[in-house]
Design a protein that fits this description.
Elements (H helix, E strand, L loop, with lengths): L1 H47 L1 H26 L2 H25 L7 H21 L6 H9 L1 H58 L1 H14 L9 E4 L5 E4 L1 H7 L22 E8 L2 E10 L4 E8 L1 H15 L9 H12 L7 E9 L1 H8 L1 H20 L8 E6 L2 E7 L2 H16 L2 E3 L2 E3 L2 E7 L9 H17 L5 E3 L2 H20 L5 E10 L5 E12 L2 E3 L1 H11 L2 H19 L8 E5 L2 H4 L4 H12 L6 E6 H6 L1 H13 L3 E7 L6 H4 L6 E4 L1 H5 L6 H15 L3 E4 L5 H9 L4 E2 L10 H9 L3 H9 L1
């Protein structure tokens, strides 16, 4: 008996020793296999697979550079462009660095690096063009067209690089798989031997094994888990809950934690499933596993409300403008494209609306105030359309820089009511942080009949053409796109191209209209008026001066006018004892040009002409476009001894608060008041009031557009100092003007006779 017990103990401990040895070998082999697999997986997860993300991030950054430069072209907002461009360039640099460190052959990135370098050169060229005081839009568009091929090359090379990385990963994965299979076979063999040995011991330690199993079952529920953990039976009854679950349920009971659709997931054939659900305004992630060994479900709950809200915020930011909360240009384009692609739903009105003078808000109060103005403007526009029976095909978008996009069903009558309501809402003063701003809305609209088989970009291009025409007409109005607008744009393009050669081809010439002193009837001065002659055809200044302003050529043309006028004045004053001064008109861009005073002083000194013989005429609109800067320039010009005159008075703001601050000596009453001058008329009251006001401010008055003796007599009775008009003399060429003033002027006799 003792020998038998000894043998049993020997057999028991021998079996245990063998099992321990087998398990040790199995453990070492399993550890080796798992460790190697972990290294393989880690290399795949940390080195190989992230290459796809890096390539995609690189591609996205390169494409976003194109998006940023197109947005910069649309808005001319250099600050926003610099922020976006620096961010995308940093993203490209970081992606390149990671790819360099991970890709076996660095030469595979050479083409992408060349594309990026060319992009940087192109961006530098485009930024240089857009950063000039006067933007050369032709050059900007030319540089812009160079960007699309670079983006295409970047996409093609990214796809090729992705394919090569994929081949590299597949090759490595095959190697890992082969190595894993070998390890699995060895582990399986050792496991079989271990199972056979364990079966022998199972009979000896059955009771102990049952106790261990029970301990393992209880240990499988992490009671210290900070998230709710539940155990369910086959029919979904709760049989275990950890402390976090009890705390989360509170007085509502544990059943309140169960997902509403829990019973649809209680399928024993499914070992594991995971889903998300919303309950009581909170989001949870549920993980459910069936443990066949214990015949029960384990349910893990994780509160993911913060993540869901973050995802919603990201989705919102991707399609909305942060300043106004309206949808952005991308979503607006998707909206319009979706409806234009449907023949039944394609009849839309698409509009671009510009808040004029918003740049003045930025200059006067800063970007933050301007953003508040844009935000309140968006609210007003939304309120303006809120009362309408709005269709699902309508939307309002903000694209930045004071520009709104709007799409509405093709109902011109109803749309006109909405547009008028929008304009009225913007016309109301904006009172923000102690500032009061007055803006107006200029709208360009393209109707549905012009959008058949069009895209959103084409629709916005046509609407932008109508908007530009509205601005050329003075703004604060609605212009519907017509086919002739295209011709007007082509005409403006022809004028712009012609102006680039006009000075070189000597097509400009100056005409002079005498300014007569009413008290004596003699010539006191002359106004220089530019004319553009191409062969026998004269182009009106009203047609080419706005184009010269927009294209930036006005500075060069203005300097030519200044030089020629001073030269001509020196000729007609050569033998006169009483010199006749010349008046030259200044555009707003000339007035705000930083070197204007130095340029004029240089011209006068070169010709030896006294500074007080040159008079500069500016309009009210030009003076008030950027008043403080204009005031600084005018004060500088006045300090040189130049004469200053405020032209077209009465047609602009006619603000007395600004008028008394401007260092001008003369007011010119616009011809529109003089030509309709008649006793008892409104124009009589206006003209008389303006003259009296000027005299109270110690200013001389020039009345333009005098065409009848009755008008002349009325002006004399009001003690108007100077007159101009066809009654006295029309604009004439230099030689005709010299003859006119030498003959002592017909207008002088007329003035004395009428007196």
């Amino acid at each position: 008996m003792g020998l038998r017990m000894h043998n049993i103990r020997w057999q028991k401990w021998g079996a245990v020793s063998c099992l321990i040895a087998l398990l040790s070998a199995l453990g070492v082999l399993s550890y080796t296999a798992v460790d190697q697999s972990q290294r393989d997986i880690a290399q795949l997860a940390q080195q190989d697979l992230p290459l796809f993300d890096d390539i995609q991030e690189l591609r996205t950054a390169l494409v976003n550079i194109e998006s940023a430069i197109y947005e910069y072209y649309l808005t001319a907002d250099i600050e926003l462009f610099d922020i976006r461009y620096r961010a995308e360039t940093l993203s490209v640099k970081m992606s390149m660095q990671r790819l360099d460190a991970s890709i076996d052959d660095p030469s595979e990135l050479a083409e992408l690096k060349r594309v990026h370098a060319e992009m940087q050169e192109t961006v530098a060229q485009f930024r240089a063009v857009m950063s000039r005081d006067v933007i050369e839009w032709d050059r900007a568009r030319s540089v812009l067209t160079e960007f699309r091929p670079l983006t295409s090359r970047a996409n093609d090379e990214s796809e090729m690089l992705t394919a090569r990385v994929r081949e590299q990963i597949v090759s490595r994965s095959d190697t890992y798989a082969k190595r894993m299979r070998t390890s699995v076979y060895l582990v399986a063999l050792m496991s079989t031997i271990a199972v056979l040995a364990a079966a022998y011991l199972a009979r000896i330690n059955y009771d102990r094994l049952k106790a261990v199993q029970e301990q393992e079952r209880l240990a499988s529920f992490p009671s210290s888990n900070p998230h709710p953990v539940l155990a369910l039976d086959r029919v979904g009854r709760i049989i275990y809950a950890n402390e976090a679950a009890r705390a989360a349920s509170g007085l509502s009971g544990l059943m309140s934690l169960l997902p509403p659709d829990i019973f649809s997931y209680l399928i024993e054939d499914e070992n594991y499933c995971e889903w998300e659900f919303e309950k009581d305004a909170r989001w949870f992630q549920a993980s459910l596993g069936w443990l066949n060994r214990y015949q029960e479900y384990h349910l893990y709950l994780l509160d993911i409300s913060a993540r869901k809200h973050a995802e919603e915020d990201l989705e919102y930011l991707a399609y909305h403008d942060l300043t106004t909360g309206l949808i952005n240009r991308q979503q607006f384009n998707e909206f319009v494209d979706e409806h234009l692609s449907d023949p039944i739903e394609s009849m839309l009105l698409v509009a671009i609306m510009d808040m004029d003078l918003l740049k003045s808000v930025v200059a006067a109060a800063g970007v933050n105030i301007a953003e508040k103005v844009a935000r309140f403007a968006a609210m007003r526009l939304q309120h303006a359309i809120a009362d309408e029976n709005f269709s699902e095909r309508s939307c309002l978008s903000y694209v930045g820089g004071g520009l709104f996009c709007f799409a509405y069903p093709n109902d011109p009558i109803e749309a006109d009511i909405i547009f008028q309501r929008m304009r009225e809402s913007i016309a109301r003063p904006f009172d923000i942080d102690g500032f009061e701003f007055y803006l107006h809305l200029t709208i360009g609209v393209v109707a549905g009949e012009h959008l058949i088989e069009s895209t959103s970009e084409e629709a916005l291009r046509l609407a932008d053409g109508a908007l530009n025409l509205a601005k050329q007409r003075g703004g604060d109005q609605i212009v519907m796109y017509e086919s002739k607008i295209e011709e007007e744009h082509r005409q403006r393009m022809r004028i712009e191209m012609g102006l680039r050669h006009a000075q070189q081809d000597k097509e400009f010439e100056l005409f002079y209209q005498p300014k007569i002193a009413l008290s004596t009837g003699v010539i006191a001065g002359a106004e220089a008026l530019i004319r553009w002659r191409q062969g026998e055809i004269y182009t009106s200044p009203e047609d080419f001066i706005p184009v010269a302003e927009d294209s930036g050529q006005i500075l060069e043309i203005g300097e030519w006018v200044m030089r020629q006028a001073v030269h001509d004045m020196s000729m007609w004053n050569a033998n006169r004892t009483t010199p006749i001064h010349v008046a030259v008109n200044l555009s707003v861009k000339q007035l705000l040009y930083s070197d204007l005073a130095a340029t004029i002083a240089k011209i006068l000194k070169e010709k030896g002409v006294a500074f007080n013989l040159l008079e500069l005429e500016i309009t009210e609109t030009a003076a008030l476009t950027d008043f403080e800067r204009a005031l600084e320039r005018l004060t500088e010009l006045r300090s040189l001894g130049l004469k200053l005159s405020l032209d077209d008075f009465g047609t602009g703001y006619s603000s007395l608060s600004y008028l008394q601050r401007l260092p001008v000596q003369t007011l010119k009453i616009d011809s529109s008041f003089i030509q309709e001058l008649a006793p008892g008329s409104h124009n009589e009251a206006i003209a008389n009031t303006v003259i009296s006001l000027a005299h109270r401010l110690n200013l001389d008055v020039v009345a333009e557009g005098v065409e009848t003796e009755a008008q002349l007599n009325m002006l004399r009775s009001w003690r108007c100092e100077y007159v101009q008009g066809f009654l006295l003399a029309k604009p004439m060429k230099l030689q005709d003007f010299i003859v006119y003033q030498r003959q002592n002027s017909v207008s002088s006799a007329l003035v004395r006779a009428s007196g």
